[in-house]
Amino acid sequence: xxxxxxxxxxxxxxxxxxxxxxxxxxxxxxxxxxxxxxxxxxxxxxxxxxxxxxxxxxxxxxxxxxxxxxxxxxxxxxxxxxxxxxxxxxxxxxxxxxxxxxxxxxxxxxxxxxxxxxxxxxxxxxxxxxxxxxxxxxxxxxxxxxxxxxxxxxxxxxxxxxxxxxxxxxxxxxxxxxxxxxxxxxxxxxxxxxxxxxxxxxxxxxxxxxxxxxxxxxxxxxxxxxxxxxxxxxxxxxxxxxxxxxxxxxxxxxxxxxxxxxxxxxxxxxxxxxxxxxxxxxxxxxxxxxxxxxxxxxxxxxxxxxxxxxxxxxxxxxxxxxxxxxxxxxxxxxxxxxxxxxxxxxxxxxxxxxxxxxxxxxxxxxxxxxxxxxxxxxxxxxxxxxxxxxxxxxxxx
Length: 397
Ligand code: ADP
Fold this sequence. Notes:
This protein is of the alpha/beta class and 397 residues long. The chain is built from 15 helices and 14 strands.
């Protein structure tokens, strides 16, 4: 089965093509991977043998078409014909009430469109991808895999904001994001711990450019730090995370900020970048910190503190903790972040093996053998989850 996975963001469009004869138990390697960087208008395509880059000159739709063309033409060709693709899976950031992946129909597209006000940076790009596929591949089945779906198991007392109830009925509630990654890491942690997922109380720390934690019990998300939008919760690369909601009101009333300016400030110029004044990239912040930069130090300390205080806030719903998981760009690569977070949690029974933490590569347990709470490092595989859903969908169909 040939499965094309599309992951569209506001500034990037990623794709990968899997060619599977059976569904393996661990993630398969895609036969082709492509990435469009819309800022630099650069398309990079990688196969086992070849890596090619191509400067895009036209609009976004032509860019996506070019990306698909590279699958069956030129030096990066891996299939004879686009018609060989059996199914296309799309990562959809905001899926509202969808509790599981859905075959894309005109109604599903309409629902994704209706959620644009809640996800203005992502849902329009997803629709763009879906429509390009419709134009090029016609009636190939397309599956929407939602980042929000995994969190639809949050109970009402967690999913509801303490606002007038009509707002909650109008859809203003705690959705949560990164669900595809949280779901994958929960499943993978059960494999690493050799325990049934249903027996585990987990906190998954997805720390990338965007950051969120999820409290997962019996394989279900019970609480997550992102909310109505991916702005709530932890301090991130450029996003503030949770702040006093009166701050935007003050800035608008007293300082003449427009809604647009507040939006840009909270989403694009806050977080690590805003506090340090250096970068949204933690590596650059840490390099400055090493040289004694005070604001870099402050930004880093805040980043860690906010992870720890959020971990604390997730414990009651779990009633204890069996494992703490680190994943995504920062979680997988920064031993310092993992060490600093774990340092404050020893009273819970978290005991990091400092040497393993430094040298760990690939999925593994990095706590000491007798630690009450295990610490895990897991490379998240969002594309693979989408491919698996596609496989299961077609097999069932
Ligand atoms: P996205 O949320 O865009 O998918 P990623 O999960 O790829 O992001 O994470 C990207 C971030 O990971 C970068 O901004 C960078 O701050 C961080 N990162 C990557 N490698 C390291 C590292 N070795 N140390 C610290 N941070 C890192």
